[in-house]
Design brief:
heterodimer; A: 295 residues; alpha+beta; Alpha-Beta Plaits; 15-stranded mixed beta sheet; two-stranded antiparallel sheet; 7 helices; elongated; B: 267 residues; mainly beta; 13-stranded mixed beta sheet; four-stranded mixed beta sheet; 30% strand
């Protein structure tokens, strides 16, 4: 399949089942809401090294947030429900509660929930108080600037992590321009791109010659290893490969993000777009590139 | 089901049978024959009301019901609409459903409820959301929304839930309060929060507080904006000044646990 002059390889992205949550952070000004959001989504690129994957889903206006202040919507994913619960407590506690003026609300109305505010409340040392508004239990934790207002329970649901595609370009600048355009197009509800500004250069393969490592550099896609690695997947003209990884609250959202991203990335100078998989033996989702592009 | 008052009671009429839980599964004849107490005299519902089965689950009642007590008592589900004013003990012990009154209500609106929502478009009498005399616990959940004024002892002994007064409240608002939230968009009467243990009383106006309350600070409580947005959606007009303003925070009653708070609009 060709999009413009870019060949789309007939392969699939191998994605995994994860657990996902949506956190709404608000602040007195957009700056402080974003400060907390950046902090909360920091060091959250890959579950392999960070225990979770997180990113900013979008900005929210005053009309879209529970407390009528500017906000940011964050998606956070982990490999298990318990792991996600732990990461939420850690990150809301360390990154949102600490940030001036912020409040934190659940953004996912689903049946299954985990306790977040109900655990953080103990920071109040007995001065905390709760409020029940409708069915929503909220905690007020006194802090030096005023009080941190946080919802007790956050919804979690099964989600999809590790959707991906690789952009194989003729040089660095062309490839950067292609992935930047893709990332811009992929700002959609229900998905995040957990790597720095949405892009990863250190794509990995499972395993390593070093036994302690669960993953190592994807040598078949490293241009500098073309002559040394046991095999290469790179056409001769390709000098740069960048990958975009997508986590989403469901498979449909991930596929749609991949579709618009690939469409935006395809251009002159991008020789191929392909996807990372492990032979189909590890992940439960096989996101076929040709199929999702045909709609 | 539609009920229209055709005979004014001369003494209070105890009509706890006017409740979705009591009507469900009964024929029009059976409902018409349900017992109401007119003073100490047992009568049938049809002795005072004309009943029409319109096939809807909502109960609609009209007429001057200011002497009709206990409508919606122990209600768990459904909806009652009262077109006009209503008597005392409306929705007593209610746990679910909704009651809407287009006029005024007498004393004891939502006495000891633990769920559901009662909305009074006009004024309410004394002891909104309170416990009966001798009980130390008022409402334990649910919402009581009064668009007009309310008289004394709003939320006496309140343990949980939300009471909103769109106008002014009388004396001893939140007296003996254990927890929960009382929001008064007008003026609080005298001695608000007397003997309160926990909970929040809020007013958009300044108030004379008891000496057993201590000033904390003037700040913007985030949770309050959440509440104001919530009640705005219930039909109240909330000025931006209140949404974005600062509030004086007072702790009390220090004769009790001193864990209650009164928030008064400052600027």
């Amino acid at each position: 399949m060709l999009i413009k002059s870019t060949e789309i390889i007939d392969t699939f992205a191998e994605a995994f089942g994860m657990w996902g949550s949506r956190v709404i952070v608000t602040g007195e000004t957009p700056k402080w809401a974003m400060a907390a959001a950046r902090s909360m989504t920091g060091f959250a690129t890959s579950v392999i090294g960070c225990k979770c994957e997180a990113g900013i889903e979008g900005l929210l206006t005053e009309d879209e947030t529970p407390d009528g202040r500017p906000g940011v919507s964050i998606l956070l994913f982990a490999g298990s429900a318990k792991g996600l619960a732990n990461r939420l407590v850690e990150r809301v506690g360390q990154c949102v509660m600490t940030c001036p003026t912020t409040a934190c609300f659940n953004g996912l109305e689903v049946e299954e929930t985990v306790n977040v505010g109900g655990k953080l409340r103990y920071f109040g040392d007995g001065y905390q108080s709760s409020k029940l508004l409708g069915d929503q239990r909220l905690w007020r934790i006194p802090v030096m600037e005023g009080e941190f207002f946080v919802e007790e329970s956050f919804g979690i649901q099964k989600a999809v992590g590790g959707g991906n595609f690789l952009v194989l370009g003729e040089d660095l600048n062309i490839t950067l321009a292609a992935v930047e355009a893709a990332v811009e197009a992929m700002q959609l509800p229900g998905v995040i791109l957990p790597f720095p500004d949405g892009v990863v250069r250190s794509g990995s393969k499972p395993g390593s010659k070093y036994k302690a490592l669960p993953a190592s550099t994807n040598d078949a896609y490293c241009p500098s290893l073309r002559g040394r690695a046991p095999r290469t997947e790179l056409p001769e003209e390709v000098t740069c490969v960048l990958e975009i990884v997508i986590d989403g609250l469901d498979e449909t959202a991930v596929k749609e993000a991949m579709r618009v991203g690939i469409m935006a990335a395809a251009r002159e100078g991008i020789r191929q777009i392909t996807a990372g998989n492990y032979g189909g033996n590890l992940g439960q989702y096989h996101l076929q590139l040709h199929e999702l592009l045909r709609g | 089901m539609k009920l229209s008052l055709h005979t004014l009671p001369t003494v209070p009429l105890e009509a706890e049978v006017i409740c979705p839980d009591k009507f469900i599964g009964n024929s029009l004849d059976a409902i018409s024959a349900m017992t109401v107490m007119h003073g100490n005299q047992a009568c049938s519902l049809a002795d005072f009301f004309t009943l029409t089965d319109d096939g809807l689950e909502t109960i609609e009642v009209d007429g001057d019901l200011s002497k009709v007590k206990l409508i919606g008592s122990e209600m768990t589900q459904g909806k009652i609409i009262i077109k006009g004013s209503v008597g005392a003990h409306l929705g007593a012990l209610m746990t679910g459903g909704e009651i809407l009154v287009t006029g005024n209500a007498e004393d004891w609106v939502g006495r000891e409820i633990s769920g559901g929502r009662i909305v009074i478009k006009g004024d309410a009498g004394h002891l909104v959301g309170s416990g009966v005399r001798g009980s130390d616990t008022g409402i334990q959940g649910g919402e009581i929304i009064i668009h007009g004024n309310a008289k004394n002892e709003v939320g006496n002994g309140m343990r949980r839930g939300l009471i909103v007064i769109g106008g002014n409240s009388g004396d001893f608002t939140g007296v003996n309060m254990k927890a929960g939230t009382i929001m008064v968009l007008g003026q609080l009467g005298q001695r608000p929060g007397a003997s309160m243990v926990r909970g929040t009383i809020f007013s958009t106006q300044s108030a004379q507080l008891l000496p057993t309350f201590t000033y904390n600070t003037t700040y913007k409580p985030t949770f309050l904006k959440r509440y104001l947005i919530y009640i705005k959606k219930l039909g109240f007009t909330i000025d931006d000044a209140y949404l974005n303003g600062k509030y004086q925070s007072w702790s009390g009653d220090s004769l009790e646990l001193n864990k209650g708070e009164i928030l008064l609009f400052a600027e």
